[in-house]
Amino acid sequence: MIAEMEATLVGGTRAQPFHIATPLLESWALSQVAGTTVFLKCENVQPTGSFKIRGIGHLCQEMAKKGCQHLVCSSGGNAGIAAAYAAEKLGIPATVVLPATSTPQVVQRLRGLGAEVQLVGRVWDEANARAQELAKKDGWVYVSPFDHPLIWEGHASLVLELKAALKTPPGAVVLAVGGGGLLVGVAAGLQAVGWQHVPIIAMETRGTHSLHAALEAGRLVTLPDISSVAKSLGAKTVVARALECAQELKVLSEVVEDTEAVSAVQRFLDDERMLVEPACGAALAAVYSGLLAKLQAQGRLSPLLTSVVVIVCGGNCIDSRQLQMLTAQLSHS
Questions:
Q1: Minimal CB count within 10 Å: which of 131, 146, 239, 259?
Q2: Mean pLDDT, rounded, for 181-194
Q3: Nearest to residue 168, comparing CAs of 330, 22, 17, 307?
Q4: Type and span of the H or E element at 197
Q5: What share of the chain is helix, strand, coil (3-state, %, to 5)?
Q6: What local confidence, expressed as pLDDT, does residue 102 receive?
Q7: Burial 274-305 (b: 16+ CB within 10 A, else e)
C-alpha cells in the first residue's frame, strides 16, 4: 500500500490527492530552546487547516469509487472539516456530527463547505454514536476521524515527504495523540521508509491521555471524561492499532498539563507568527516545557539528537479571543 502511495507522490496514476505536500521549516526559536535543530512539519497550512485531510481525503476518495452516496463523520472539528472538504470535491453530500461544545468557527466552516451539521452530546464519543447510527442508512458511509487502514495509509504520506526533504532520519518525531490515527500513520510511514528506529514522542494533555493510560494498564482504557481544554484530542479510548504501535515501536508516551499546552500555543504564536490549537500545543510543549532534555537526561532519548521533527498538526479550533480566554481561565484555575 505504501509503495502505491510513493508512486502517487512521484507522479503515479492514482487520483490526485486532496492534501498538499506541506513545508518543512527549520525553526531558529525552537532550536534554541531544544538545543538541537527543530524542524516544523506545517500541517496547519493544509487546505483544511490540519493533517486530517491526508487520511480522510484518501478514505473518502476510495469510498466514492465504491458508490458512496452520503458521507457521515463524527469529529471534534478537524476531521469533520476534512470530510466536508473531500465531500465537496467529490460532489457527495456530507453530514458531520460534532459535540455541542464545538467552536462556532468550526460549525461555520463546515456549513460553508456545504455539510449538514448536527451537534450531539458533550464529548466526541457521544457524537460518534450518533454518526454511526446515521451511517446505517442505505448508501451512507461512516468516516471515522482516526480508525481505518485507509486513513492511516493517507497519514503515512507525511513521512514520505519527510524522507524526501531530510534524506537522513531525524533523532525523533514529536506528535500529538487524540484517537491515535496520526500516530499509526506516522509509525507505518517510518517503517515503510526504513526509519522504524526513529523514536516517536507521543504527546497528550492530562484529561485526554487515553494512550498513556492504555500503556500503563497494558490494555485499552476508557477515560471517565474529557477534562482537558484540548478538545481536538478528546477520544476517551485510543484506537487499538495505536496501542499496538506504541508497544511494537519506540514510542515515548508523555502527558503535559493544559497550562503547558496553552503556554506553548502562545509562545509558538510569538516565535513563529502561527496560531495553533491546544491539541497542537501538546506537541509543541515537548520542546517548550523542557521535556526533550528531561528524556535525554533519563536515557530514554539519545543525548546526541541530530534533529527533531515536530508535527504542527492544526489550528482550526482556535482564534485570538479564545486563546486569551484560555490563558485567563488556566491562570485562575
A1: 259
A2: 97
A3: 307
A4: none
A5: 50, 15, 35
A6: 87
A7: bbbbbbbbbbbbbbbbebbbebbeeeebeeeb
Residue 326 to residue 320: CA distance in whole angstroms = 10
Q: Tell me, what's the pLDDT at 317?
A: 82
Phi, psi dihedral angles at 49 (to 5 degrees): 85, 0
Decide: helix, strand or coil at residue 31.
helix
Would you tell me how many other CB atoms lie within 10 Å of the CB of residue 3? Answer: 9
pTM exceeds 0.85 for this model: yes
Give the cell for residue 214.
492504555
Strand pairing report for 172-176 and 140-143:
unpaired
Q: How far is CA 222 from CA 139, 151, 225, 240, 312, in A?
A: 31, 22, 9, 12, 26
Q: Which helix (H) or strand (E) holds 25?
A: strand 24-27
Torsion of CA 102, 109, 274, 293, to 10 degrees: 40
What gap in Å lies between CA 96 and CA 116, rounded to an integer? 6
CB count in 10 Å sphere of residue 67: 8
Instruction: Give residue-wise pLDDT tens across range 253-286.
Output: 999 999 999 999 999 999 999 999 999 999 999 9
* Integer angstrom CA distances of residue 81 from 52, 112, 124, 145, 203: 9, 10, 15, 10, 23
**Residue 186 identity:** V
- Distance between CA atoms of 250 and 99, rounded to whole angstroms? 33
Given a cut of 70, whether residue 4 has pLDDT beyond it is no
Contacting residues for 300 by C-beta, under 8 A, at least 6 apart: 252
Rounded-to-integer distance, Cα 127 and Cα 102, Å: 11
- Contacts of 113 by beta carbon, 8 Å cutoff, 6+ apart: 81, 84, 85, 87, 88, 94
78 has pLDDT over 70: yes
Q: How many Å apart are CA 207 and CA 259, to the nearest integer?
A: 12
